[in-house]
Amino acid sequence: MNNQKLIIAFVFGVLLGLLLFYSYQEFFPSTSIAIFSPGNGEKIISLLDSAESSIDLEVYVFTSQEIIDSLKNAYDKGVYVRVILEKRFQGATNQDAYKQLMDHGIEVKWSSYDYKLMHTKFAVIDKKKVLVGSHNFSNSALNLNREASVILESPLVKEFIEIFETDWKIAF
User: Fold this and answer.
1) What pLDDT does residue 4 have?
2) For the chain, what percent of residues have pLDDT higher than 90?
3) Which of 40, 75, 79, 83 is 20 to 30 A (C-alpha) from 101?
C-alpha cells in the first residue's frame, strides 16, 4: 500500500511540475528578435517608435540623426525619455546628440567616470523590452557595419532596468 501511495505522489508531483513549467511560460513569456546589420536599422527605429510610456537608453556612440529624431518624436507624444552617453568617446562626438536632445527637453546625462568607459549599448522600452547588442546609434552601425543585437521581452529586462537606474544615479 505504501508503494502505491509513493507512485501516486510521484506521478502527481511530475504532473504538477509540468503544469507549473507551462504556466510559468504563459505568465512570463520570453521572446526575442535578432537584428543584424548592415541594413535592418529600421527595426531599431521601429522599436523606439513603438514606445508608449518610457525609453531609457545607454549607448557608447550616438550620432544617428534618425534615432535622435525618433527620440524627439517619442518625447513629443508624451514618452518619458532618458539618455546616458559616453563623453570620452574618441573619434566622432556625442556632443551633437547631447545638445539636440537637451534642447528638445529630453533628459540626457554623461556617463560616470567610475568606469574607464561606458561601452554599453542598450535601450529599455516601456520597462518591458530591451534592445541590447553591438549596435551603437550611428549611421554606420545601423546601415553599414556588421552588427548584431537582440530585442528581448523576458524577465531579464528587470536587470537592465536596475543597471540603467544605477548608472543614471551616478551619471552627470
Assistant:
1) 75
2) 72
3) 40
